[in-house]
Amino acid sequence: MSQGIEQHNPGHSTRAQAHPNIALIKYWGKSDTLMNLPSAPSLSITLDTLVTETSITNASGNSDEVWLDGEKTIDLKIAGWLIDLRQRFDLPPLEIRSTNNFPTASGLASSASGFAALITAINAHCELGLDNNQCSIWARRASASAARSMQGGWATLSGPHWHVESLEINWPVRVVVAITDATRKAVSSSVGMAQSKDTSPYYPAWVETTTQDFAAATDLVAAQDFAALAELAEHSCLKMHGLMMSTQPGLLYWKPATLAVIHAIRELRAEGVPVFFTVDAGPQVKAICLPEAAKAVEDKLASISGVQQTLNVGLGPGAHLVTNATP
Ligand code: 2P0
Protein backbone atom coordinates (compact mmCIF):
# COMPACT_ATOMS: atom_id res chain seq x y z
CA MET A 1 0.00 0.00 0.00
CA SER A 2 3.05 2.20 0.36
CA GLN A 3 3.29 5.04 -2.18
CA GLY A 4 6.61 6.33 -3.46
CA ILE A 5 7.47 9.98 -2.85
CA GLU A 6 8.56 10.35 -6.46
CA GLN A 7 4.95 9.85 -7.60
CA HIS A 8 3.89 13.17 -6.13
CA ASN A 9 3.94 16.20 -8.34
CA PRO A 10 5.50 18.99 -6.22
CA GLY A 11 3.10 21.65 -7.50
CA HIS A 12 0.01 19.57 -7.02
CA SER A 13 -2.45 20.72 -4.36
CA THR A 14 -5.43 18.84 -2.94
CA ARG A 15 -8.28 20.43 -1.01
CA ALA A 16 -10.89 18.84 1.23
CA GLN A 17 -13.73 20.15 3.36
CA ALA A 18 -15.38 18.73 6.46
CA HIS A 19 -18.04 19.98 8.83
CA PRO A 20 -18.23 19.78 12.63
CA ASN A 21 -20.63 17.31 14.16
CA ILE A 22 -22.63 17.57 17.36
CA ALA A 23 -23.08 14.49 19.52
CA LEU A 24 -26.55 13.87 20.94
CA ILE A 25 -25.30 10.80 22.80
CA LYS A 26 -21.95 12.02 24.06
CA TYR A 27 -18.46 10.55 23.99
CA TRP A 28 -16.31 11.26 27.07
CA GLY A 29 -13.56 8.79 27.97
CA LYS A 30 -11.34 6.22 26.28
CA SER A 31 -10.78 2.51 26.74
CA ASP A 32 -7.50 2.66 24.81
CA THR A 33 -5.46 5.85 24.52
CA LEU A 34 -2.96 4.40 22.01
CA MET A 35 -5.61 3.67 19.37
CA ASN A 36 -7.94 6.31 20.79
CA LEU A 37 -10.86 3.95 21.30
CA PRO A 38 -13.87 5.46 23.07
CA SER A 39 -15.16 3.69 26.15
CA ALA A 40 -18.75 4.02 24.95
CA PRO A 41 -20.56 4.63 21.64
CA SER A 42 -21.83 8.02 20.45
CA LEU A 43 -24.46 9.35 18.05
CA SER A 44 -24.15 12.64 16.19
CA ILE A 45 -25.39 14.98 13.49
CA THR A 46 -23.00 16.59 11.03
CA LEU A 47 -23.68 20.26 10.35
CA ASP A 48 -23.58 22.43 7.24
CA THR A 49 -22.37 26.07 7.01
CA LEU A 50 -19.57 25.64 9.59
CA VAL A 51 -16.63 24.27 7.67
CA THR A 52 -12.94 23.39 7.84
CA GLU A 53 -11.09 23.55 4.55
CA THR A 54 -7.68 21.91 4.33
CA SER A 55 -5.24 21.99 1.46
CA ILE A 56 -2.21 19.73 1.07
CA THR A 57 0.84 20.31 -1.10
CA ASN A 58 4.25 18.74 -0.96
CA ALA A 59 6.43 20.85 1.35
CA SER A 60 9.35 22.66 -0.26
CA GLY A 61 11.69 21.68 2.61
CA ASN A 62 12.42 18.45 4.43
CA SER A 63 9.79 18.70 7.13
CA ASP A 64 6.05 19.19 7.42
CA GLU A 65 4.65 22.70 7.63
CA VAL A 66 1.32 23.28 9.35
CA TRP A 67 -0.67 26.49 8.95
CA LEU A 68 -3.88 26.88 10.97
CA ASP A 69 -6.08 29.86 10.16
CA GLY A 70 -3.17 31.55 8.37
CA GLU A 71 -0.63 31.11 11.18
CA LYS A 72 2.33 28.77 10.99
CA THR A 73 1.89 26.40 13.91
CA ILE A 74 3.55 23.50 15.66
CA ASP A 75 0.62 21.27 16.54
CA LEU A 76 1.71 18.26 18.60
CA LYS A 77 -1.50 16.36 17.96
CA ILE A 78 -1.11 16.67 14.18
CA ALA A 79 2.62 15.89 14.41
CA GLY A 80 2.06 12.73 16.46
CA TRP A 81 -0.72 11.59 14.16
CA LEU A 82 1.50 12.07 11.09
CA ILE A 83 4.19 9.93 12.74
CA ASP A 84 1.61 7.14 13.13
CA LEU A 85 0.43 7.59 9.54
CA ARG A 86 4.02 7.37 8.27
CA GLN A 87 4.48 4.05 10.06
CA ARG A 88 1.90 2.72 7.63
CA PHE A 89 2.42 4.88 4.52
CA ASP A 90 5.39 6.48 2.81
CA LEU A 91 4.46 10.16 2.80
CA PRO A 92 6.57 13.08 1.56
CA PRO A 93 6.98 16.16 3.78
CA LEU A 94 3.64 17.93 3.56
CA GLU A 95 2.50 21.53 3.68
CA ILE A 96 -0.87 21.55 5.44
CA ARG A 97 -3.03 24.66 5.40
CA SER A 98 -6.29 24.52 7.30
CA THR A 99 -8.87 27.22 7.93
CA ASN A 100 -12.09 27.23 9.97
CA ASN A 101 -14.93 29.65 9.36
CA PHE A 102 -15.83 29.37 13.09
CA PRO A 103 -13.97 29.68 16.44
CA THR A 104 -11.29 27.02 17.03
CA ALA A 105 -11.13 24.87 20.19
CA SER A 106 -14.10 26.44 21.94
CA GLY A 107 -16.63 23.61 21.93
CA LEU A 108 -17.60 23.85 18.27
CA ALA A 109 -15.86 20.59 17.32
CA SER A 110 -13.02 22.07 15.29
CA SER A 111 -10.83 19.00 15.85
CA ALA A 112 -13.62 16.83 14.43
CA SER A 113 -13.91 18.71 11.16
CA GLY A 114 -10.15 19.38 11.13
CA PHE A 115 -8.97 15.78 11.20
CA ALA A 116 -11.77 14.58 8.91
CA ALA A 117 -10.71 17.16 6.31
CA LEU A 118 -7.03 16.35 6.89
CA ILE A 119 -7.24 12.58 6.30
CA THR A 120 -9.54 13.15 3.31
CA ALA A 121 -7.05 15.53 1.71
CA ILE A 122 -3.97 13.40 2.51
CA ASN A 123 -5.69 10.23 1.32
CA ALA A 124 -6.32 11.79 -2.09
CA HIS A 125 -3.09 13.79 -2.32
CA CYS A 126 -0.83 10.86 -1.46
CA GLU A 127 -3.03 8.22 -3.10
CA LEU A 128 -3.33 6.11 0.04
CA GLY A 129 -6.34 4.23 -1.31
CA LEU A 130 -8.34 4.41 1.93
CA ASP A 131 -12.12 3.98 1.80
CA ASN A 132 -14.47 6.04 3.98
CA ASN A 133 -14.38 3.53 6.85
CA GLN A 134 -10.60 3.46 6.85
CA CYS A 135 -10.44 7.25 6.70
CA SER A 136 -12.77 7.42 9.70
CA ILE A 137 -10.49 5.05 11.62
CA TRP A 138 -7.48 7.30 10.92
CA ALA A 139 -9.55 10.37 11.84
CA ARG A 140 -10.63 8.64 15.07
CA ARG A 141 -7.03 7.94 16.04
CA ALA A 142 -6.50 11.71 16.12
CA SER A 143 -9.86 12.73 17.61
CA ALA A 144 -12.65 10.24 18.12
CA SER A 145 -15.31 12.79 17.19
CA ALA A 146 -13.48 13.33 13.87
CA ALA A 147 -14.51 9.87 12.73
CA ARG A 148 -18.14 11.03 12.82
CA SER A 149 -17.43 14.03 10.55
CA MET A 150 -16.46 11.60 7.77
CA GLN A 151 -20.19 10.93 7.46
CA GLY A 152 -22.97 13.41 6.69
CA GLY A 153 -26.25 13.74 8.55
CA TRP A 154 -27.02 11.26 11.34
CA ALA A 155 -24.01 9.12 12.24
CA THR A 156 -22.75 6.74 14.90
CA LEU A 157 -19.39 5.66 16.24
CA SER A 158 -19.57 2.33 18.02
CA GLY A 159 -17.60 -0.83 18.64
CA PRO A 160 -16.25 -3.27 17.90
CA HIS A 161 -14.83 -1.65 14.74
CA TRP A 162 -15.04 1.99 15.83
CA HIS A 163 -15.46 3.43 12.37
CA VAL A 164 -18.29 5.77 11.46
CA GLU A 165 -21.63 4.46 10.29
CA SER A 166 -24.56 6.33 8.79
CA LEU A 167 -28.00 5.95 10.30
CA GLU A 168 -29.31 6.26 6.71
CA ILE A 169 -32.16 8.55 7.64
CA ASN A 170 -33.34 11.78 6.07
CA TRP A 171 -34.54 13.75 9.10
CA PRO A 172 -33.65 17.40 8.49
CA VAL A 173 -33.49 18.95 11.95
CA ARG A 174 -31.91 22.40 12.43
CA VAL A 175 -29.34 23.51 14.98
CA VAL A 176 -29.24 27.01 16.46
CA VAL A 177 -25.80 27.58 18.01
CA ALA A 178 -25.67 30.19 20.76
CA ILE A 179 -22.08 31.42 21.12
CA THR A 180 -21.46 32.72 24.64
CA ASP A 181 -17.64 32.85 24.62
CA ALA A 182 -15.46 32.17 21.58
CA THR A 183 -12.11 31.98 23.39
CA ARG A 184 -10.10 28.74 23.53
CA LYS A 185 -11.05 26.32 26.28
CA ALA A 186 -8.62 25.91 29.16
CA VAL A 187 -8.64 22.09 29.36
CA SER A 188 -8.57 20.03 26.16
CA SER A 189 -11.03 17.19 25.73
CA SER A 190 -8.30 14.52 25.76
CA VAL A 191 -6.85 15.79 29.05
CA GLY A 192 -10.29 16.23 30.59
CA MET A 193 -11.37 12.72 29.60
CA ALA A 194 -8.29 11.15 31.17
CA GLN A 195 -8.89 13.11 34.38
CA SER A 196 -12.55 12.02 34.49
CA LYS A 197 -11.61 8.36 34.04
CA ASP A 198 -8.96 8.57 36.76
CA THR A 199 -10.82 10.60 39.35
CA SER A 200 -14.61 10.68 38.95
CA PRO A 201 -16.58 8.20 41.07
CA TYR A 202 -19.30 8.41 38.39
CA TYR A 203 -17.14 7.18 35.50
CA PRO A 204 -18.13 3.46 35.55
CA ALA A 205 -21.83 4.41 35.67
CA TRP A 206 -21.31 6.88 32.80
CA VAL A 207 -19.82 4.18 30.56
CA GLU A 208 -22.48 1.63 31.40
CA THR A 209 -25.48 3.90 30.97
CA THR A 210 -24.16 5.64 27.84
CA THR A 211 -24.07 2.29 26.09
CA GLN A 212 -27.75 1.86 27.00
CA ASP A 213 -28.60 5.44 25.97
CA PHE A 214 -26.96 4.88 22.59
CA ALA A 215 -29.07 1.80 21.85
CA ALA A 216 -32.24 3.65 22.83
CA ALA A 217 -31.31 6.74 20.81
CA THR A 218 -30.70 4.84 17.57
CA ASP A 219 -34.25 3.46 17.85
CA LEU A 220 -35.69 6.92 18.55
CA VAL A 221 -33.89 8.42 15.54
CA ALA A 222 -35.15 5.60 13.30
CA ALA A 223 -38.69 6.36 14.54
CA GLN A 224 -38.10 10.14 14.24
CA ASP A 225 -39.46 10.48 17.78
CA PHE A 226 -38.33 14.05 18.49
CA ALA A 227 -39.94 14.37 21.94
CA ALA A 228 -38.33 11.22 23.34
CA LEU A 229 -34.98 11.98 21.70
CA ALA A 230 -35.09 15.46 23.27
CA GLU A 231 -35.34 13.99 26.77
CA LEU A 232 -32.65 11.37 26.16
CA ALA A 233 -30.18 13.76 24.49
CA GLU A 234 -30.52 16.35 27.27
CA HIS A 235 -30.01 13.56 29.79
CA SER A 236 -26.82 12.42 28.02
CA CYS A 237 -25.54 16.00 27.92
CA LEU A 238 -26.27 16.76 31.58
CA LYS A 239 -24.90 13.39 32.66
CA MET A 240 -21.64 14.13 30.81
CA HIS A 241 -21.38 17.56 32.45
CA GLY A 242 -22.15 15.95 35.84
CA LEU A 243 -19.25 13.59 35.17
CA MET A 244 -17.04 16.53 34.20
CA MET A 245 -17.98 18.47 37.33
CA SER A 246 -17.30 15.41 39.51
CA THR A 247 -13.77 15.12 38.07
CA GLN A 248 -10.81 16.33 40.15
CA PRO A 249 -10.03 19.11 39.47
CA GLY A 250 -13.60 19.84 38.45
CA LEU A 251 -14.22 20.54 34.76
CA LEU A 252 -16.69 23.37 34.40
CA TYR A 253 -17.03 24.45 30.77
CA TRP A 254 -20.17 26.55 31.24
CA LYS A 255 -20.49 30.33 31.46
CA PRO A 256 -23.46 32.07 33.10
CA ALA A 257 -25.03 32.58 29.67
CA THR A 258 -24.72 28.83 28.97
CA LEU A 259 -27.12 28.15 31.83
CA ALA A 260 -29.43 31.00 30.83
CA VAL A 261 -29.74 29.52 27.33
CA ILE A 262 -30.42 26.04 28.73
CA HIS A 263 -33.26 27.41 30.84
CA ALA A 264 -34.69 29.33 27.88
CA ILE A 265 -34.70 26.18 25.74
CA ARG A 266 -36.46 24.23 28.46
CA GLU A 267 -39.07 27.00 28.74
CA LEU A 268 -39.61 26.92 24.98
CA ARG A 269 -40.13 23.18 25.03
CA ALA A 270 -42.57 23.46 27.93
CA GLU A 271 -44.54 25.89 25.72
CA GLY A 272 -44.68 23.23 22.98
CA VAL A 273 -41.73 24.32 20.81
CA PRO A 274 -39.87 21.25 19.46
CA VAL A 275 -36.37 22.05 20.69
CA PHE A 276 -33.75 20.59 23.01
CA PHE A 277 -30.22 21.56 24.03
CA THR A 278 -26.81 20.01 24.02
CA VAL A 279 -23.49 21.43 25.26
CA ASP A 280 -19.99 20.09 24.55
CA ALA A 281 -16.59 20.79 26.11
CA GLY A 282 -17.09 24.52 25.90
CA PRO A 283 -19.64 27.20 26.79
CA GLN A 284 -21.66 27.28 23.54
CA VAL A 285 -25.18 25.82 23.52
CA LYS A 286 -26.58 23.97 20.54
CA ALA A 287 -30.38 24.01 20.26
CA ILE A 288 -31.62 21.16 18.10
CA CYS A 289 -35.07 21.85 16.71
CA LEU A 290 -37.52 20.90 14.00
CA PRO A 291 -37.19 23.21 10.98
CA GLU A 292 -40.44 25.11 11.61
CA ALA A 293 -39.21 26.17 15.08
CA ALA A 294 -35.75 27.38 14.07
CA LYS A 295 -36.60 31.08 13.61
CA ALA A 296 -38.43 31.38 16.94
CA VAL A 297 -35.61 29.53 18.71
CA GLU A 298 -32.96 31.75 17.18
CA ASP A 299 -34.89 34.95 18.03
CA LYS A 300 -35.29 33.80 21.63
CA LEU A 301 -31.64 32.77 22.12
CA ALA A 302 -30.30 35.92 20.45
CA SER A 303 -32.22 38.03 22.98
CA ILE A 304 -30.48 36.47 26.01
CA SER A 305 -27.86 38.57 27.77
CA GLY A 306 -24.40 37.08 27.24
CA VAL A 307 -25.21 35.45 23.90
CA GLN A 308 -22.70 37.04 21.53
CA GLN A 309 -23.85 35.48 18.31
CA THR A 310 -26.28 32.88 17.00
CA LEU A 311 -25.86 30.58 14.01
CA ASN A 312 -28.76 28.77 12.39
CA VAL A 313 -27.49 25.71 10.53
CA GLY A 314 -28.81 22.52 9.01
CA LEU A 315 -27.39 19.08 8.43
CA GLY A 316 -24.45 18.78 6.09
CA PRO A 317 -22.42 16.25 4.14
CA GLY A 318 -19.50 14.12 5.20
CA ALA A 319 -15.90 15.06 4.46
CA HIS A 320 -15.25 15.46 0.75
CA LEU A 321 -12.68 16.69 -1.73
CA VAL A 322 -13.17 20.17 -3.15
CA THR A 323 -10.82 20.18 -6.09
CA ASN A 324 -7.76 18.46 -7.38
CA ALA A 325 -6.20 21.30 -9.32
CA THR A 326 -2.64 21.19 -10.63
CA PRO A 327 -1.42 24.73 -11.26
C1 2P0 B 1 -18.57 14.42 21.66
N1 2P0 B 1 -16.74 15.68 22.73
O1 2P0 B 1 -19.12 13.30 21.67
C2 2P0 B 1 -17.89 14.85 22.94
C3 2P0 B 1 -18.80 15.65 23.81
C4 2P0 B 1 -16.78 16.86 23.54
C5 2P0 B 1 -17.91 16.68 24.46
O2 2P0 B 1 -15.79 14.28 21.30
O3 2P0 B 1 -9.59 13.04 22.82
O4 2P0 B 1 -11.80 16.14 20.39
O5 2P0 B 1 -9.41 13.96 20.52
O6 2P0 B 1 -10.73 11.87 20.96
O7 2P0 B 1 -13.04 13.99 19.87
C6 2P0 B 1 -14.51 16.13 21.86
O8 2P0 B 1 -13.46 15.28 22.01
O9 2P0 B 1 -11.50 14.08 21.82
C7 2P0 B 1 -15.73 15.31 21.95
P1 2P0 B 1 -10.25 13.18 21.50
P2 2P0 B 1 -12.43 14.88 20.86
O10 2P0 B 1 -18.64 15.18 20.68
Describe the structure.
- There is one protein chain.
- This protein is α+β, with helices and mostly antiparallel strands and 327 residues long.
- The protein folds into two domains: 5-170, Ribosomal Protein S5, domain 2 (2-Layer Sandwich); 174-313, GHMP kinase, C-terminal domain (Alpha-Beta Plaits, 2-Layer Sandwich), CATH 3.30.70.
- It has nine helices and 16 strands.
- It has helices at 76-88, 110-125, 132-142, 144-148, 189-199, 203-222, 226-245, 256-270, 294-302, and strands spanning 13-18, 21-25, 30-32, 37-38, 42-46, 52-58, 65-68, 71-73, 94-100, 154-157, 164-166, 174-179, 275-279, 285-289, 309-313, 320-323.
- The protein has a six-stranded mixed beta sheet. The chain has a four-stranded antiparallel beta sheet with strand order 2-5-10-11. The protein has a four-stranded antiparallel beta sheet with strand order 13-14-12-15.
- Strand 10 (154-157) and strand 11 form a beta hairpin.
- The protein is globular, with a radius of gyration of 20 Å.
- Mean pLDDT is 93; it is low at 1-8.
- It binds ligand 2P0.
Spell out the key features of this protein.
single chain; 327 residues; alpha+beta; Ribosomal Protein S5, domain 2; Alpha-Beta Plaits; 2 domains; six-stranded mixed sheet; four-stranded antiparallel sheet; 16 strands; globular; disordered N terminus; binds ligand 2P0
